[in-house]
Each structure stands twice: as C-alpha cells, then as structure tokens.
Amino acid sequence: MCVSGCAQPGKTRDYLTLPPGPFRSVYLVPDSQAGFDRLELIVQAGEMDNTGPEGLAHYTEHLAWISQIGTGRLSSRHSNAWTTDRATGYFVSGPGSDLPSNMRRLLGVHLPFDLPEKFMLEERDIVLREFDQRMLEWPYASVYRDIGRILYGDGPLSRTTIGTAKSISTFTVEAAREFHQRTHAHSNSVLIASGSLKPEALQSELQQRKANELSKPVPIPAPPVAPIRDEQMVELPRLSAEELVYAKIVDVTLYSSGARLQVTVDMLGQLLDSALEGGIAGPLRYDAFIARSFDLGLSLNAGTHLEMWFSARPDSGVSLDTLQQAFELALQSSSEAGIPEQSFNKVKQRYLADVTNTDDKPEFTRRVLRQQIMNRLPPLGYSDILNAAQTVTLGDVEQLYRALIGDGRLVIRQLYPRL
Amino acid sequence: MNRLIVGVAVIALSACSTIEKEGSREITSLTSPDGFEFTFMPVYERGVTDITVRIAWPTHWARTDGLNQAVPYAGTDLILSGGTATRKPGEIMETFNDFNAYGNFSASPDYVIGELGFPRNHLDETVEIASEFLTNPQMDEQWLERIKQGFKTNQSDLYAESGNLMWSAARWAVLNDTPLLQALDVSDLDTIDAVTRDEILAWHGSTFTRVVKAITVTGAITKEDAGNVVDRLLEGLPEGEPMARSEDKADFSPVTVLLHLPDAEKTTMGIVGQLPPTSDGGDYEDLLALTLFGSSEGPLFQALRTELRATYGIQAGYTNYTRELRPFYLFGEVVTAQLAEVSKVAIATYENFRLNPDLTGLEELKLQVADDARKDALYVDVAARLMMEALLDGFDPVVLPAVHERFAAVTAQSIKTRLQEAFPPGSAFMVMAVSPDPDALPGACVITAPNQAMNCR
C-alpha cells in the first residue's frame, strides 16, 4: 500500500500513500493521538492559474465552499477553505463515523455551484469586505504588491490572491464558473487524510468513486532570470516609522533538491538571523546600535528559487542609507569570510534538536506534505526532513549563501511615513 | 530574532508514559526551603526533559495616580534586553538558543508574571542567568532608548487601525480617565518618550520582591530541585510588602458612541457588555456558548453575513481588562450603510440566543474542545499556565478536575443557566462604532477622538 517515504519495517510511518481513486494522489498521516479525523483536499490550482480579474480564484473558493460545506450545521463544526497563488484547499474534520459524509462534502467542491445567482453575486461584496478587513488600513499593501511585480514580472507569479477593490468589483459568476470548471477536478486534486482512521476505511471510500487517469500537475512557471537591482524611496500613509525592505530571489535549480535543499535553506536562514559569528544580528543589533528590530526570512519557492525578505527599522539617529549599507556589508563580509564551522555546528545542532523534539510529528508531516503539494512537488514527511538535517554540510550552506549573495532579482525600498 | 524576549517556547509533550515514576502529573502544594509556597506538578515521562517555572508578582502600578503607565511594559523588556553584569545581551540570547531555553515577562494591571522554560540538563546556568536578570538587571540606557522607539512604533501601528481606536474609545467610556485606563491604552506616545531609567528602577524595586502571589513549577524536576529553583530565583530580592486588593470603577452601562474619523477606510462595530470574572467560575460554559453562537455556522454569522450580507466575519468573544473586569463583545467590520441595522440585528440575535439558545452540535463541540484541551494540558508549559490561572482566580489546582473533564461536565442546561444568569441582557450593551460617516449610527454620541467617549456618559 505504501509507495514512498514511509512504510519501512520497524520504522514509524510518517504517511501512507494510498491508491488515489478519483484523485491525483492520496496520503494518510496516521495520528493515534488525534481525537478527530481530518480530510484536506488540495486543488493544485490557485490565483496564478487565473487569467481573469485578479482574485477570482479566491471568489471561486468561496462559492465552492459555501455550496458544499459552509452552509448548515456540520456535526464536526470544524471546516474551512483557503486560497493561495498556487493552490486551493478545503478541509473538514470530525469523528470517524463522519468519514462518508465528510468525503461527500469534499468531493462536492468539484460539482457546479449550487447557490442562488443573487447570493453568488452578493458573495462578491463579502469578498470585498474581506479585502477591506485585510488590506485597507495595512500600510504595506501597495509597496508589497509592487515588489512582487518587480521580482516576479508582470505574469502569473505576481498576481495577488486577494486582488484589488477594483478587480473584485468586476468578478462575474460566469467567470468563476469557468475557472472552477477548468481547475476544480478530482484529477487535479490531492487528498491528505489524517487521524486514527484506518487506511482500509479510507480506501473503501475512495474505491466507491470512479478512478481517473493519473496525471501530473501543471508545473509552476519559472520566474524571470535577468538580474535587476531596483531601489526606491517611498512615502507611505499610515506607516509609523522609517523602515528598510530588502527582497531578493535567486535561482537555486543547480543546487541540491527536495528535503536537503529545504533544510539547507532553513539552516542558512537561522544562521543569518542569529548573533552567532556569520549572522547579521551581531553587526546590526548586538555589537552595534544600527537596527532596533529586524526580520529576516528565507524561503524556497517552488523548489527552484530562494526568496529572501529582510525588513528592519533603524536605531535612533541611524539613517536608512546607513542601515542598508550595514546590512549589505554584513552579508558580504560573512559570505566572503565563510561561515565559521562552530556557528554551523550550533545551528545544525539546534535544528536537529528542534526536529527531533517535535512533539506533534503527524502535524509536522501534514505541514511538510501540504507545502510540497501546494508547490506541486513530490511528497515529503517528517523522516525526510530529519534525515536531510543529518546530512546537510557546511559546504551546502556556504554554497547556498554564495548563491544568495550573487546575481539575482533585488528590490530595495526605503519606506518613510507620509506626514 | 530575540528568543529571550519574544519567548519562543520550546515545549515538551509527553506522548508516551512508559517510564512513569511515582507522582508523575500529580499536583501538590509545597513549600520551598526558604518558605515560598509553590504549586508543583512533576512530569516523569520518557522524552520529557523540559521544566517550566512561573512566578506572579502583584502590582499596584496601574492603580496609582501620577505614575507613568508605560513603565511596566518598557521595564519588562529592558530587564531581559540589557544583558547581565557578566554576559552581553547577544551572548545570553545565543546561550538560551543553545540550551533550548526561554524567558519572558508579561505585564498586566494585576500582576507581572515571569516564565522561565529550560531543559533539565541546563537547569543551573539558566536559573543563574534568570536570577541575575531579576536581581541585578543592567538597565542599559541605549537599550532603553531602543525599546522606547520600538514600543512607540508598535503603539502607532496599533492605533493606525481604526478598529483599535474604537476599542480605545470603549475603554475610555468604561474606565474614564484613570491610571488603569492609561495602563491599558498607552495611546499617548509622549508617555513612552518620557519613560526614564530611574522610573524603571523604581518600578523594578517595588515589583520584584519576595512578596509573590503564586508560583508554579512543572516538568522533569524533583520537588527538592523545584524548591531550590524557586529559592534561587527569589533570593536577593527585597522583602516587599503585601498589597491590598483594590476595587476598580467601571461603567459598562448602555451608551451608543460613534467615533467619526474622516480618514477611516472602513466602518467597524463593537457591541460591549460585561461578564462576571473567571474567579466566579462558569468560564467553560462561556467558551462553549460563544463558540456555538459566533462560529461560522452559528446564528450570529448566519444573521449578519449569510442573511444581511453586511460583513465578512463577526466575532463573539471576551477579554480581560483586569482579573475582575471582563468585557464581552460582538465585533466586526460592517458595510457603513448597514451599521445601524447590523447593530440592532446583532443584539436581537444575541438576545434570542441568550434566552433560547440553539445548542445543536454541543456534544460534538465538547468532544473536540475537550480533546484539544487534553492534548494541550500535556505540555509542561501549558500545565504551568493553567495551574497559575487557577491560583490567581483563587481556586486550588490540586483539587480541580482536569481541564478536559471540566469541558466534558458542561451540559446544555448549565449553558442555558449561565447565559440567562451571567450574560448581560441585550438591553444592557454599549454600542461602539468607528466610521468615516458621522451619520452612520443615528442617535449616537458622535466623537472625533477616543478619549471623548468618557463625555458620552
């Protein structure tokens, strides 16, 4: 029954790969501690697959969810839906006895919308309320949108899931129906089940549905490759204090892949974020008063690109120019000097301790699986990450660091409050 | 970035209990060698190595006229930021990261609570550093300036959102211009600028004494070691003096207030009433009742989103101004033109639920919540917090049933009784709103700044 990454005799099974029935793939994460079973259906399509008004994928998710899951009283009272640029998810949870009805509800999100036309049009206004809630008084909305467009070009990768007030107002039910029909198919969806439900019970449910021909997800398009450096000063209403935002993407397709690359990215991020030698917290915050606060995050995008987001607020009397120079100097210096072995060993030791001491391993696996499926990549689980963490070397991290420092698409914004 | 301050808790869940020793997970009241009473729950289970210590110091700072109410917030940050006499700040942060340890403070009007978490094998050094923080913090001036700047930015960000200004107006309407209001609000950025090192030293000296309200110790530690840890953390602190409990004046009586902000981008509504304090009990019923009422499948959501189509989401919940003052609210962003109708329908829907609740799904919800609570309470740090909350409410955690058992004991009848006896009637609510339209709520007391809400009484 188990195909990959899981069922080795004598070892804990992170997840089981079941015959997919109507879906592209089906994974079961055993979790004997869970009181309820959870079913999450991930449609491998999101806003980047939409060619209509920006945000239509999210509106479509609202209509699909309300049609099948979001109305009436669910016995479980635990269900929701989400949309990102690359995937759309629906989940329900409940006791094992709810499996047949919960499966029916999930399968239903692929059926044509079953709602009055007037209600569907009004839901457009509800999406607008959601936009109001999330975006209207958020000072960074415009600048982050612009940064995305410069990093990823004016194509599918830079579309925002929430859209704009203007684009939302142009949604039509017909366009949502067309997008739904094009993307929401069993064969374009992956099911992640978890809990104490038996594989046989799940399989029995799946076997009642007509199987589809196996297909691969549409690959996520590659971002532009031409290096750029785009710097601007921007005044923003509602911004409270000066801030530096520094965003960069670099191609890492030539480096390792899968779990090893993911762990290498994580370790480099943790090292840079630290006050260890080689990190930037020392030169910016602890050894000098340059940045009173900063956030640095590295993430692996679609398994092929490394994305860095750095934002910082300067200490009193420090200009954004000085802060930017100090940040770039810290990166350049530590990259050229090489990461001290002692620092790497500490980061690796902490990372391994964090993974090993993970209390909820099924949740860890669910999170990693979800991330992989959203990125349209092969599945990974807890053991894959743990094994990779044991094998990542200082050389791996240094190589990735050099890539991060090298050519890429870089956008820098010095943000000032508009008085 | 700063694990010590942010307090990223690394918590140990006891998933298996195959090497259980005597007394594991039994809660007892003990006295340390130096005479401090503490509540203790050892966890002797395979894989559990973490220990959590929580100490609650009573404070009257937020009830004292003439004091800068920004001081406790800046002070708790500064204690942990400036390093110790022998260790630099960055060194301590990395040491704690290596240990997988954390420390944090939370300041509230009633107590300053410190929490320390660490694995058993790093007990000595972690406790030594924490003790230094408590007894001999460096209070570095440059760090103070940095903390003040950050605090000001945080408060500016907070009040840049019109919904938070509405909550500020609600506080002014309830508490009037009192030190407690200033402590909860901290909207005047000049008060943050005015914080001095001397003020923080005075606050530190009067707060961190050997007079403590409650101490809890949980995790992979013996009772002897637990007592010694408590003594080591508190040794070197001044004796201090017991504090009498004070009464806060609050007025939750009905009033309708609209904060008119021409630049607000949206309209937000808050309907506010008062619940009895958690020390009176009944909070398990409160949680379940409000989950049923306010969930996306509950009557409030049904009435305001599905039927009126006036909001993306509306919350029903409660918070604590103090341990005695517990506001209950219905809150959400709404279509400006529908504000008046929404407020009426929200109150009518609530009142209907209060008097005649539809508790469909209660049993399933209880199972789910009790299951979550059972799992959460297995965590060493969560257990320390639950025990502390019981102590601060005057309950004896030694004799309390487990949290999941208390959820399981809730019945439809106990919820109905609670709703009718403890929840305010619909006629007793304050209706608060913030909007770019001054006429959006006919009959409202229209104000242009939150502090004017006290004049609407």
Description of the structure:
The complex is a heterodimer of chains A (419) and B (457). Chain A has 419 residues and is an alpha+beta fold. In chain A, 41% of the residues lie in helices and 20% in strands. In chain A, the strands form 2 sheets. A 6-stranded mixed beta sheet of chain A has the order 1-2-6-3-5-4, sandwiched between helices. In chain A, strands 7-11-8-10-9 form a 5-stranded mixed beta sheet, with helices on both faces. In chain A, a hairpin with a 6-residue loop joins strand 1 and strand 2. The termini of chain A are far apart. By secondary structure, chain B is α+β, with helices and mostly antiparallel strands. Helix content of chain B is 42%, strand content 17%. Chain B is built from 17 helices and 12 strands. In chain B, a hairpin with a 3-residue loop joins strand 4 and strand 5. Chain B starts with a helix and ends in a 10-residue tail after the last strand. At the A-B interface, helix 3, helix 9, strand 9 and helix 11 of A face helix 3, helix 5 and helix 14 of B.
